[in-house]
Design brief:
Strand content: under 5%
Shape: flat
Number of strands: 2
Largest sheet: 2 strands, antiparallel
Order of helices and strands: EEHHHHHHH
Distance between the termini: 22 Å
Strand order of the largest sheet: 1-2
């Protein structure tokens, strides 16, 4: 790997421009090359991840046992403890996916989405009097993770710098809020409708256009501004 002379970001060997500041990388400058991790270092990282997972698993197990014991001691049966135990299992699954799959963001996104959907489904099975999973929870989870996945894909595929990435994130938030209002409105009232989300979407679009305009106007003066403001 190489290091960008302008901002210090580590750059993959097959890239000729920095993904953050878009400055061209000099392939002939061997001073900024960062050595690939050795087998010993990879083994150390793997051991650290396994140790962290063991700690997280132990904490989740102890917390679950405390909750179950408290519930059982109160009435010699299990009632309310099902909800916090389900939440603890969800947190454990989400953290475990982040620990072992952090180098694969799309796989992490899929795993987190699966954990959220499984958690919401478990809660819905504990409250059978109200059927809200298939009509509300599942669509909301799909919308949120679809928007997040789209934003991540656009930013990575286009190798966007910081300002355009923020613009894309804001636009994604606006789209997500519109979709959420439509879904919630249909679940509550049985009809599609838009009100407050249009205002937030208009604000998101305005910020999106403004940030892209500012980024375009900066142009080749980024390095000058970085030196002036020490960023």
């Amino acid at each position: 790997m190489k290091k960008c002379e302008s901002c210090g970001v580590l750059v993959e060997d097959d890239l000729d421009r920095c993904p953050l500041c878009r400055v061209k990388i000099d392939d002939g400058n061997t001073e900024n090359e960062v050595p690939e991790p050795t087998a010993e270092r990879r083994a150390t990282v793997a051991g650290a991840k396994l140790w962290l997972w063991h700690v997280v698993s132990l904490l989740a197990f102890i917390s679950s046992m405390i909750v179950v014991a408290a519930d059982f001691a109160a009435g010699f049966n299990l009632s309310w403890s099902r909800y916090p135990v389900s939440a603890i299992v969800y947190v454990w699954a989400a953290v475990s996916a982040a620990i072992f799959l952090y180098r694969r963001p799309f796989v992490v996104l899929i795993a987190e989405a699966a954990a959220v959907i499984a958690f919401l489904f478990a809660i819905s099975r504990m409250t059978p009097s109200t059927a809200w999973f298939s009509s509300l929870a599942l669509p909301i989870a799909v919308i949120v993770f679809f928007v997040i996945g789209t934003v991540v894909t656009v930013c990575k595929r286009l190798a966007l710098s910081a300002v355009p990435s923020i613009a894309v994130v804001l636009l994604g938030i606006g789209v997500k809020l519109v979709a959420l209002e439509v879904t919630i409105g249909y679940f509550v009232d049985g009809a599609f409708g838009l009100s407050w989300s249009l205002v937030t979407f208009a604000c998101a679009v305005s910020l999106f256009v403004t940030l892209l305009f500012v980024n375009a106007r900066l142009g080749g003066r980024r390095r000058e501004f970085k030196r002036i403001f020490h960023v």
